[in-house]
Amino acid sequence: MTRSERAAAEGFMRLALAEAAKGLGRTSPNPAVGAVLVKDGRVVARGHHARAGGPHAEVVALRRAGEEARGADLYTTLEPCSHFGKTPPCSLALLEAGVRRVFVGSRDPNLLVNGRGIARLRRGGVEVTAGVLREECDALNAHWFRYITSGRPYVTLKAAITLDGKLATRDGDARWVSGEASRAEAHRLRDRVDAVLVGAGTARADDPRLTTRLPRGRGRDPVRVVLDPRLSLPPSLKLFHHRSKAPTLVAHLAGVRIPARRLAEGVQFLACRERRGRIDLHDLLDRLAARGIAHLLVEGGAEVHRSFLDEGLADRVLLFVAPKIAGGEARSWVAGPSVARMADALALEGLSVRPLGEDLLVTAVPVRRR
């Protein structure tokens, strides 16, 4: 492609990315995908995958375009599928609709596809250009790529901390560390993940609802997961009674007797293997993946954060950093002993920082040691 053609293709792919983002948190165990149909430089239809089992983004756009799809160009954030699942293959639908060219962002890592969709289109005479805004398209579905290639959810650790790395005072007061803009962003994050997790200590101390609260009730509640190894949490907690369409999963050690206590409808118990006296996080993630949870948001507390980091199970860290200093006796967002040598400190890479009101949102990826 020429430079101008590349610029035009990237512009239309950005529209497809905006479509795909509408499905985040709503499509698991499927990816979020957006598609745009263009004819003579004009957008004739857009579509996104809205829910698992529903029509894929390409098919939504084709249906909206009707006869205008013939001879049009399609821009899709993810390689069109090539296999029969709950819906017919999108690559076949594109051939039948007479689409002229297809521009693809990400290659599909699913072994059922992984190049087969592109190959089918090319065999059918469709010109395919792959890798348009690939980094942006890959980033959009990083959680699903992890899920489909490893069989476990993508894990994001999230904490609101002071400038000196504290999430609460020495007496446990954490309201409010971050500002209003950060809290609003945290709710937007909950809206886009499949599940949110806290430990028993955080559940007991903060009594959170773990729901999504966005303006005009637009938020979608994720599945709520609480680690309660011995089932010792009081049944009065909001997690067990707050009305939500999303279930609450109580992860506990296998063999612990489930008490006969009244909890709200939608509360479920999840028996997990034991590892060193605690819930085996590997087993927990396997069980969550089996429920179609592809993106897990871990909101603490400090012991839970440390466990995910120690086990090498954290894929991303999000820190809402407030311009405050709590002091040395305040509680760090990561519990446990400190390292003796700086060379042993956990390294992070891919650092990005952006302002949120008076706070900063710091995003980074833990370096996985061999």
UniProtKB/TrEMBL annotation:
Residues 7-129 form the CMP/dCMP-type deaminase domain. In the C-terminal section; belongs to the HTP reductase family. Its cofactor is Zn(2+). PROSITE patterns: CYT_DCMP_DEAMINASES_1, CYT_DCMP_DEAMINASES_2. This is Riboflavin biosynthesis protein RibD. Binds 1 zinc ion. Its EC number is 3.5.4.26, 1.1.1.193.
